[in-house]
Amino acid sequence: MKNTFGSNIQYTLFGESHGEAIGIVIDGLPAGIALDLDLMERQMEKRKAKGKISTQRKEADQVKIISGYFNGHTSGTPLTILIENTNVRSQDYARTQMLLRPSHADYSAHVKYRGFEDYRGGGHFSGRLTAPIVAAGSIAMQILQQLGVQIATHIEKLHDLEDVRFGQTIEEVETQIAYLQDRSFPTLDETCGKAMIEKIEACAKQKDSVGGILESAAIHVPAGLGEPFFDSIESILAHLLFSIPAVKGVSFGSGFDFANLYGSEANDAFALKEGKIVTKSNHNGGINGGITNGMPIHLHTVIKATPSIYQEQDSVDLQSGKEAKLTIKGRHDPAILHRAAVVVDSMIAIGLLEALCQQEAGLALIKQMSSNERGMIV
Amino acid sequence: MKNTFGSNIQYTLFGESHGEAIGIVIDGLPAGIALDLDLMERQMEKRKAKGKISTQRKEADQVKIISGYFNGHTSGTPLTILIENTNVRSQDYARTQMLLRPSHADYSAHVKYRGFEDYRGGGHFSGRLTAPIVAAGSIAMQILQQLGVQIATHIEKLHDLEDVRFGQTIEEVETQIAYLQDRSFPTLDETCGKAMIEKIEACAKQKDSVGGILESAAIHVPAGLGEPFFDSIESILAHLLFSIPAVKGVSFGSGFDFANLYGSEANDAFALKEGKIVTKSNHNGGINGGITNGMPIHLHTVIKATPSIYQEQDSVDLQSGKEAKLTIKGRHDPAILHRAAVVVDSMIAIGLLEALCQQEAGLALIKQMSSNERGMIV
Amino acid sequence: MKNTFGSNIQYTLFGESHGEAIGIVIDGLPAGIALDLDLMERQMEKRKAKGKISTQRKEADQVKIISGYFNGHTSGTPLTILIENTNVRSQDYARTQMLLRPSHADYSAHVKYRGFEDYRGGGHFSGRLTAPIVAAGSIAMQILQQLGVQIATHIEKLHDLEDVRFGQTIEEVETQIAYLQDRSFPTLDETCGKAMIEKIEACAKQKDSVGGILESAAIHVPAGLGEPFFDSIESILAHLLFSIPAVKGVSFGSGFDFANLYGSEANDAFALKEGKIVTKSNHNGGINGGITNGMPIHLHTVIKATPSIYQEQDSVDLQSGKEAKLTIKGRHDPAILHRAAVVVDSMIAIGLLEALCQQEAGLALIKQMSSNERGMIV
Amino acid sequence: MKNTFGSNIQYTLFGESHGEAIGIVIDGLPAGIALDLDLMERQMEKRKAKGKISTQRKEADQVKIISGYFNGHTSGTPLTILIENTNVRSQDYARTQMLLRPSHADYSAHVKYRGFEDYRGGGHFSGRLTAPIVAAGSIAMQILQQLGVQIATHIEKLHDLEDVRFGQTIEEVETQIAYLQDRSFPTLDETCGKAMIEKIEACAKQKDSVGGILESAAIHVPAGLGEPFFDSIESILAHLLFSIPAVKGVSFGSGFDFANLYGSEANDAFALKEGKIVTKSNHNGGINGGITNGMPIHLHTVIKATPSIYQEQDSVDLQSGKEAKLTIKGRHDPAILHRAAVVVDSMIAIGLLEALCQQEAGLALIKQMSSNERGMIV
Predict the structure, then answer these.
(1) Domain boundary assignment for chain A
(2) DSSP three-state, residue A219
(3) pLDDT tens digit sequence for C237-267
(4) What is the DSSP-derived secondary structure letter of residue D257?
(5) Fewer CB within 10 Å of terminal CB in chain C, N or C?
(6) Which residues bind FMN (chains A, B, C, D) (predicted)?
(7) Hey, which chains touch C, using 3+ CB pairs under 8 Å?
(8) Which string of b and e fits D48-57 if b means at least 16 CB within 10 Å?
(9) Measured distance CA(A14)–CA(A83) in Å, rounded
(10) In the 8-state DSSP scheme, what is residue A78?
(11) CATH architecture of B4-369
(12) Between vectors from CA A290 to CA A286 and to CA A295, what angle results, nearest 5°?
């Protein structure tokens, strides 16, 4: 499927960092949704480069909807979002095009596209491509919010600095998500957030960059979403998250800590709470057998340090075919965790909506047939 | 796509643990492949329950190919693999069907399928469904092996016991993969392997179970595989790996350790080695920008402890609608890491072959057109 | 997608005429459908070879459901249907395998699969593959029937013999569909049917075969199904119908007669009938702009004469590489129109259900959102 | 898949007739293709409204490539084509929006999109959407041409006027296709073409419109393309052709005339011609068993008369809910056959390229494996 994701609602992403425009086509949105353009703008705002902790390339990221939107509502046909590239300084890249930037896609893309790749600023591999994803994600988010679902992401860890974690119960997470709405820097602990900002600024001064872990939570997600094979909720979300540049690991619930737990410790016992079936602990992050169980979804995404650093690095010059020293120019982020948080939120929204549509289609059919003589036990 | 994975070669999985048969349809295999049935049998053997460290339900897992195979070769039409369920003792499950097993899919499946799920032995959620995946994976593996690709997985960590890790260079990994071929228990360090076996046996005695981490490596994978969006190699592999029951996290290269690394530490500098472009370190696990770069692919899969333990657990009885105590009967694995290793190998093979076909299709076209006037620089 | 069709409910077809079994995996059926196995058997019966007007190879076509079906209901996981091949006389084919049968797939399959094709009895190209399609189609049909949809097909034309045509209004078609239920030979006019049977028998005596046109109607199909691009209802149905062996043309409503009509003649004026919007004529066969409009769907499928005739034919011998004379052995149908009618019905059911699910998924979502403030005008 | 077609190369269509722009995203094009923009312009020119036989809405149809194209070559990432709508007079539609236009999608779209559809000028259902299809098709055409494939379409029949038909041999068709290249009006017989033009002009004067049949041929298509189920070449091409507005029937080779032929007449005997296997006749239009056989592909597409006529018609007013008279305003085509020919060519190119990629992917793999020990017999 390459640049298209989704079966019920399909997203087709296009564009290059230094091309004319980037954008996304969203197909399958039901007609009649009054788009929340304020939400879209707020989400786009979260992704924007700000202050000294981000790149100095500031893009307006003006979202234009050029199809599928009529009289303030979705029309049911493909909705196309276009974002023009305005603040382009390609000359910064001209000089380094033949010098492979370490841990960037320069070399792997060069082999893949046999020299025809658009190398300016990362081309189609650029983090800029996450802008249309955030715009599209805000539509998925709006739909989910109207169904009660809430999603948020904070920086769990930036190098050695660790934020407070999301709670285990829906109530705790609800409070935390509300708190995060107004944060300009996404941490649950403000002091920790300030320390992280200082760390990023210090990194920038060192001509270095820094990585970390994002923690996300989604609550009020209906139980029963996801498919046993091959589209478990974990599969769907990981598929999306691993296409965000710089993501190198994704885990759910207790994640890699499961390695240290015995079954007797790791199992989430069932219990009743106000007549509803819940689990006493939530090691599984709201997902059993690949299917949501109604508990908060918890997931972790590790983001590597931005590969664009200003220190001299060892490289190979494709033109001369020889080893060479590289010093990167251009405008780059010393850390992208704070900007990536809303991208992760967007991907989670896109993934959950896909699973929800899948489940609803079957339910709609069965309801029409009214042949459900046994019915649900729960 | 639910139970179907893949675009070039498609795998459709079906069956339930206690039904008549499980199986898989593989569509898109080129005609004329002389199947290596010995390799298939060896792979199936690795997955089988053996000794005291596995369940006492021993299945013959006799693979029958009922279509798409003619005169010892693939015929080009869908190849269907059938594995009958023989050693079925469903009565063990009759008693517990209404008591939700913690950390199993019982509850989430019950909500999803509204009471109509086949609850016997996990039904379609059962680990038994990985048997046809291993059979199918062995075909993908055979094709990749003929192209020079090698894949192997060992137990990196079982609770507090840690095995030696895969090396950073192709040469090191090649030796390690060769070593693993003859191991009945998949560790690189034999002593560590023995300790792990003892730990599993001890767990079994405690009516408990244990989890851990698998590390996989793939070498001689051509550079240039994967797509920037949304089908990065990481996305494809994670999608497949997260549909293996019990997998809760997947990471590539340095994985979650990236959180602790500055860009200056994490970047993999480029260098020349015998005229070939390589990276000096391999934090990125052979993948840059979602695309393979020719270095060894390294990935980690965390497997939670088997949820079926024999200790009494808190649960809810769907029939009475009340909380109740559950003691699981039946035959279960105290650990599945050693059996899961070949399942992970199979998924990796399926994923890499998919990405390879994707890339080859385009190349085949361009070669026919012979319009590649610029050509590759590398 | 090759042997898999459908996005909401997916059908994966496998098997060869003289292999061990043929079958189909149906994925995406909602859980809880009490399968109407009588309907399935009746549909299978309609497809069976009977009397002198069909092949003498009589197959039991015993349908076995080996997964996805539990306690008399669909379980929500892939439902697999298996039909064993029992009455196989492959030796009839051994002699002719290298002699290309005119208008069969022998040559094109040989090129496609480079000599590795299963040539026995048409292999995967055999009309036998329509047996699992009818079984699967009966499930789609059952669902549609419960929603009120009715579908039927009769022989519109067999050589120079022409049956009565389906009426233009829902009421007329309803009566005709009811009439067709009990027919052993699918014509609306019994006398015409008898003449057709005689013609087929005469053909058989002449060692020849005969073709014709099937006309199908579907009523009570909800308006609004289909997509403008690329999944118009016509696209979906034609896609399915053209994969039935021997189909060489598909048309809707007035079909190829549209060439003779001016716009003023061909347009279907809108009118009100008991408060409902209808069209006064139905040249468009219930489809406007690729979307159903609530009027009866009318479609025509031309079926070429069975290529297996017993007269000597010119051919090429692949073994010698020379021209040669071919006299076909084996057991073949002098006409397949009467057996193909239920296959066409099955494909229509599969196609309409797919479009219905597509539409329902969106509606279900929008209903949940209850944001449909404008609402439908009609 | 809705507005996306294709698996190897994917086309995602978007836009509305009176929106800001229409366009298409093409994903999966191999990198390094030097686009033939002249061919694209020539194809676009063929589709344009010209003279008195077409609508008076003249659109510049300026094609802008905004991504996936770098330094004169495809870059391997999604290629996006944008065509702005410039000559928009939506006020013509304001008045009729609530009056259903007969045989248009007004009513079916209204039900489908529940009143939220963009009704201006047909919206997403407009024939304007075929402009990006022609642009995309010209790229597919260019690739096929470089591989030797030639495709052309002429007006076989316009009401009672019938053109000369395509010949049965590759040589005859080759000459005819060459002849058609320079025609401003697509007929094989110039006199017949003039008569058709007069007929269209006469229709326009009568405020009426006229339909007809297009015949297409494709030669030098490699044998072996297409899949038995469900993606026969006929299925793929029909799927695409039936999404062109106004197409109501598609047939291959002798098409609906097969109904009048006995097997002994309809079968295409095999023979050798200069050492190559050919068929003596070509009733099957170059396709056996859904797979190309190397003979010319012949297909027929019936195009209904344009539903927009200037005569008063019976209709229903959605606003009042009452029957009403409708007189269509705006600028419309009295016939679209001459403009549709290049759209049909484009769809055929898209479909054949898809099938070719499918086949090449498998071949590329098997060649790499060099395990093809039996090899092709032919």
Answers:
(1) 4-369
(2) strand
(3) 999 999 999 999 999 999 999 999 999 999 9
(4) G
(5) C
(6) 124-126, 289, 304-308, 331
(7) A, B, D
(8) ebeeebbbeb
(9) 10
(10) P
(11) 4-Layer Sandwich (3.60)
(12) 15
